[in-house]
Amino acid sequence: MTDVAIAAAGAAWEPAAIAAIERAPHLRLARRCVDVAELLAVARTGVAAVAVVDPSLSGLDLDVVRELIACGVAVAACGDPAGAVALGIVRRPAPDRLGDVDWGEPAPVPPPPPAPVEGGRTRTVVVWGPTGAPGRSTLAVGLASAAATTDRRVALVDADVAGGSLAQQLGVLDDLSGVLGACRAAGNGRAHEVVDHLVEVEPGLDLMTGLPRADLWPHLRVGAFGTVVDRLRIDHDVVVDVGSGLDLDGAVGRSRHALTRHLVETADAVVVVGRADPVGLTRLVHGLLELREVVPGPPAALVLNHVRPGLGWKEGEIAETVRRLTGLVPDVFLPLDHAVLDTAAMLGRSPRASAPSSTFVRRLEVLATSVMGGRAVIASPAPE
User: Fold this and answer.
1) Shared-domain flag, residues 92 and 123
2) Which of 17, 149, 364, 376 lies at a CB distance of 3.0 to 4.6 Å from 95, suitable for a disulfide?
3) Are β-strands 269-275 and 124-128 bridged in parallel, bridged antiparallel, or unpaired?
4) Which domain does 257 fall in, by range?
5) Residue 384 placed within a domain
6) Residues 280 and 324 in one domain
7) Could you give the maximum distance between any two Cα atoms of the chain, in Å?
């Protein structure tokens, strides 16, 4: 006997579906769910093995479908075939034919998402670093700006679950969060609307603003965000600024840091940044150990930020210390250039746009050329 839960929200097809279940000797109606919360509770407790849903059910999105499947529940949709396809539901029987479905058969595999242009040459690069403000956002801005060209676009995405800062850094009003809007569109099967939530901040560089408040993190769900990145990669390289947390402090799909961990695990390249001072280096060493538990192997690049003469250490001495403690040699040392960074912040521009000939920017351009596949263009020095 197969137990079935229906979540139809009073759709016109519901009576026919119930009648079909009652006629079928191998099916039993276990629950008529009034909303998504009840449907998920039924799935998590094993009350039903099959869920028949209406795609227009409030709150039903890609992540809900994903969680139902993860609970071992076969998902089918009646009504609105286009909505079912958008949500990735591949079983779409007629309501009066539910008894004819072989629920033990694996569901058909949905078609893959559109491939990125140029044979998959676009890349997703995640900028990560330990707690303590090592400069993740500054590095993400600099890296994305250096990689953007007139014929190749870069999407800079603020996915810091502690609250976004890229909008302020680049002088963009954040009344409406780009990531919230994009995730909402993707989760409801409207992936084509994701690019509507980008704002052009420089030639070739588009920004997706982050969370205005840290308590909104539950709205950045892993499945929807994955769809956002997939859509952006059709015509953009993607640079993602993430928070420091990698631990799963709850169930995988509902942990505050689940998104950060997922992005780090699935990125084409992870760039790690740490501060070049005693506290920063200690946090970096511990952070790299934590990162290795998530992504085996070295990061694509290791950046030491806030390098300054007042520390009394030469770059070679810092590099040797990092190598001895982690086995890794830093790829780039970024100087703490207050004049460049303060000017960029006050103008709401990237360091490259405000001081293209600075040492800080030049070293970022070398890094971008490496991790973004050789497409960065070295800026011409500004006139003296």
Assistant:
1) no
2) 17
3) parallel
4) 117-371
5) no
6) yes
7) 85
For strands 301-307 and 332-335, give the pairing: parallel
Residue 132 contacts residue 280 (beta carbons within 8 Å): yes
Same domain, 142 and 248: yes
Q: Give the model's pLDDT for residue 142.
A: 93
Domain end position, chosen among 73, 100, 127: 100
Assess whether 227 and 83 both reside in one domain. no
Q: How far apart are CA 332 and CA 336, in angstroms?
A: 13
Band of residue 383 on the pLDDT scale cut at 50, 70, 90: very low
Instruction: Looking at the structure, tell me whether residues 161 and 38 fall in a common domain.
Output: no
Q: Compute the average pLDDT of residues 139-143.
A: 94
State CA 208 to chain mean position distance: 11
Half-sphere exposure of residue 87: CA atoms within 13 angstroms, side-chain side: 31
| Band of pLDDT at residue 106, cut at 50, 70 and 90 | low
Residue 197 domain-assigned (yes or no):
yes
The helices-and-strands tally (H runs, E runs) of the chain is 15, 12
By CB atoms closer than 10 A (0-12, 13-18, 19+), residue 187 is: buried
Closest listed residue to residue 353, CA positions, set 207, 155, 201: 201
Selection from 168, 367, 147 nearest residue 272 by Cα: 367
pLDDT in tens, 158-176: 999 988 899 999 999 877 8
Bridge pairing between strands 199-202 and 205-208: antiparallel
- Domain total for the chain? 2
**Same-domain pairing of 22 and 86:** yes
Calpha distance 29→303 (Å, rounded): 58
Claim to verify: residue 6 and residue 31 sit in the same structural domain: yes
For residues 56 and 123, membership in a common domain is answered with no
pLDDT digits (tens, 9 = 90+) for 196-212: 999 999 999 999 999 98
User: How far is it, in rounded angstroms, from Cα 347 to Cα 27?
Assistant: 65
Give per-residue pLDDT as tens, 109-129.
555 555 555 545 788 999 999
CATH assignment of the domain containing 58: 3.40.50.2300
